[in-house]
Model the fold of this input.
Amino acid sequence: MTTNTWRDISTAPRDGTHLWLFGPEGQYEGYWEYSEWSPIRLSSHGCGCCGRGDDPPTHWQPLPAAPDTTQTGGMSSVSPKPQGVEGGE
Done:
């Protein structure tokens, strides 16, 4: 199964797995919690408030795999979070 294919939200796991979500409010990382989709980060403005309520996501896909840090290919280090993301450097 290709990891970069958008799938209908009805097929998404509802077990707390973090997913990449898409809907009227943009693309964001989120997960199913209780009876709604909970956002982690938004690509559009990063408020963390969107993705709930009236405009739930319509599609999902798995998050990409983490980079292989054992063979950096000339990179001196790999940051755990991109710059500009809450908690990043």
Q: What stands out?
A: The first strand starts at residue 7 and ends at 8. The beta strands are 7-8, 19-23, 26-33, 36-42, 59-62.
